[in-house]
Amino acid sequence: MSHTFRYLIDREPVAGEQVILTSADAHHLTRVVRRRVGEAVEVVAPSGDTWPAVLIAAGDPAVLELGAAPHRTARRAPVWVCLGLCEAGRLDTAVEKCTELGVAGIAVFAGARSQRVPAPAAWARRRERLGRVAQAAVRQSGQGSLPEIDGLWTIDTLCAALAGRHAIVLDPDAPTPLAHALAGAGPDAPIALVVGPEAGFVAPELARLRAVGAEVCHLGDTTLRTETAAIVAAGITLALAGHLDRGHAATATHGETNG
Questions:
Q1: What is the mean pLDDT of the chain?
Q2: 48 is in which domain, residue-wise?
Q3: pTM assigned to the model
């Protein structure tokens, strides 16, 4: 079975349109994976719709011709993951996997126990990298939904952002399991999952989060690393809210890409 390679475009296309890939994507498609004229690829629009396409001109520029309609429409889940600042590689992993699952957004915040908080310029570079990680995850998974990535927030910013959402804070000492807090959550419920930094929350932070209406829940008997807790919590939440059910408008597509 041949792999399906996916590329992001920066505007919404129309059926049968010809689109030109960026130089980097053209190089990957024609020089790295050596696709030839007439071979099939896919493009992902900003909306998250995934379109079938055929390579009609190789080289730089590389030109694709789109099919009659997208064969997978976007399904963005209104679930945000608010992630405590952690080591850069772990943050990359959390963003990659949560993007593959299909969350709407990922925000990073610095808590009282966060270590090595980057300066604004350093955070700007890291945030740019996280955007690239998310784009690669969209291309690989075919999820189509590119999450918003925000931060670096303070606890004050985090508390303000939780307004209007069903906010759930993950803490290993909490008495309530996550699944209980999600009982009855429907697919349209805006949910924010808050995962602390590697050393966890301090008591005043948990008190502030409770004061703005957040529930504090656990993920079992073990203490998970920040990125693991984020991935597990996102998966449980998306599954219980019905976002991992196969939609009638979606068709299954499998394969590798230029991730």
A1: 88
A2: 6-66
A3: 0.79
Angle 140-145-147 (CA atoms, 0-180°, nearest 5)? 105
Give the separation between CA 65 and CA 20, rounded to whole angstroms.
9
Count of CB atoms situated within 10 Å of the CB of 234? 27
Model pLDDT for residues 142-151, shown as the tens digit of each residue: 777 789 999 9
Do 89 and 113 have their domain in common? yes
**Is residue 48 pLDDT above 50, yes or no?**
yes
- Considering the domain architecture, whether residues 98 and 143 belong to the same structural domain is answered as yes
- 53 and 92 assigned to the same domain: no
Residues 53, 119 within the same domain: no
**Structural domains of the chain, count:** 2
Local structure of 47: helix, strand or coil: coil
Alpha carbon distance 79, 14 (integer Å) = 29
> Quick one: tokens of 86?
């952690």
Which are the contacts of 48, defined by CB distance < 8 A and separation ≥ 6? 73, 74, 75, 76, 143, 144, 145, 146
End-to-end CA distance of the chain: 18
Q: Is residue 161, in this structure, part of any structural domain at all? A: yes
